[in-house]
Amino acid sequence: MRVFTATLSTESNSFSPIPTTRASFEATAWFPAGTHPDRPRPTTAQIIALREVAGARGWTVIEGLATHAEPAAPVRQADYEALRDQILGELEAAMPVDMVVLGLHGAMLAVGCEDCEGDLLARVRRLVGPDVAIGAELDPHCHLTDAMTENADVLVAYKEYPHTDFMERARELVEITAAAAEGRARPVMSVFDCRMIVTAPTSREPMRGFVDRVKELEGKDGVLSISIVHCFPFGDVPSIGARLLVVTDGQPEKGRALAEQLGREFYAMRREVAPPYLGVEEAIDHVLAQEGGPFVLADPADNAGGGAPSDNTSILRALIERGVEGAAVGPIWDPQAVRFCEGFGEGATFRLRFGGKAGLASGQPIDAEVTVLKLVKNLTQSFSGAIIPLGDAAAIRVGGVDVLLNANRTQGRAPDMFSNCGIDPLSKKLLVVKSTNHFHAAFAPIAKDILYVDADGPLARDYRRVPFTRLERDLYPFHPDPLGLD
């Protein structure tokens, strides 16, 4: 069997001030055809899953471009079309193929195209015809559109948030798509619109139990896969909103009924799935009143993984002004400040302006005397077996607070982002991590407690504050009960 695979992914924030261009993809993850390393990344896991089984099954796998950009504004039109057409050209050169397996995100927008995944899948379908099996792995923070489900045979989203299961889902996708290609299964996808915009970490109840129950249903009675689509809350498109996707083996009526049943269960938890959010001062007060540490404070409103700049200074400023000792904050995206630190060198003390640069929601920059603790070229952090680059980095000290500055905008995922830059996270009373929930799996084992803070960054936790203009149906929380279950 001949299999083609490629990745084209990003998560597009309609309100982000940061452009997304070809250079954004090249700076984050750029692997031309056949050059992907042996270690997977979340949106390239299908490549590794195919490599795992290709030899034993006698498959020929043709690898096309694999690329991902850090979330920001919709992709520049010409750049999206060029990347899309490059992958389509590589597919055409590989034909005939029996199977196409893609790594996508599901919330990628471009200027002139509000459904990049649907557009790509439709063009792939026209190219390969109706008989070739097409599968794609998605992020659950996606917009699940009709164009996507109509042009793919199988779509599988990660179940976990944080997305620690990207390899498991990639293997699942490969197996189901192969069964379709070989005639051993007839996948049918059924979708239920849950009519809500939510944040739903699986690291806490009630989502933890819900995901576990969903997993128990798979592989039985013709149910091949179930995906809980949370939605991406900062894409201003009519398709926004949570959905339940069930893939059955030729049982559409059963799939529709199960998708609705589970979708309504998910909807019924809508007021409970998000963690409680504290104000900045409230969170600091709570930590200072406790013994021990480290306490982890998440800053989801300035999460680069949702398209934020990751240079908001509000929590850091509060720590400095209150004279808090034994704190660390990161990552703060400021390439210029990193260069200044490199110029002065390790051990230098000087006045530095940093943070607060990208936009109004970044807050005011910090102007302070700092000491450069450590400089690192090409700093990395780990994430469920993947290695994530942060770019050149500097660890600085401001009063009692250590700050991680980095040149490649990305969210915090693991304590080794600090330790790899000379900051010992275990020695700290308080760790501030710019992330919504991807930090949780790695930080939870060392944290005395984890608190979520709603600061004044651009990713509002109350979605009613997001300036949507294109909502075309009633959605929670804009409508208290659009499905009428209360």
Automatic annotation (TrEMBL):
As to how many cofactors bind and how, the note says: Binds 1 zinc ion per subunit.
N-terminal signal peptide: none
Pfam families reported for this sequence: DUF1485, MlrC_C
The residues covered by the Microcystin LR degradation protein MlrC N-terminal domain are: 2-287
Give one GO molecular function term. metal ion binding
- The keyword Metal-binding belongs to this UniProt entry's keyword annotation: yes
Q: Which UniProt keywords apply?
A: Hydrolase, Metal-binding, Metalloprotease, Protease
Cofactor dependency: Zn(2+)
Question: Tell me, which GO biological process terms does this entry list?
Answer: proteolysis
Query: Is Ribonucleoprotein set as a keyword in this record?
Result: no
Q: Superkingdom, according to UniProt? A: Bacteria
* Family under the similarity heading: Belongs to the peptidase M81 family.
Known function: Involved in peptidolytic degradation of cyclic heptapeptide hepatotoxin microcystin (MC).
Q: What is this protein called?
A: Microcystinase C
Question: What high-level taxonomic lineage is stated for the organism?
Answer: Bacteria, Pseudomonadati, Pseudomonadota, Alphaproteobacteria, Geminicoccales
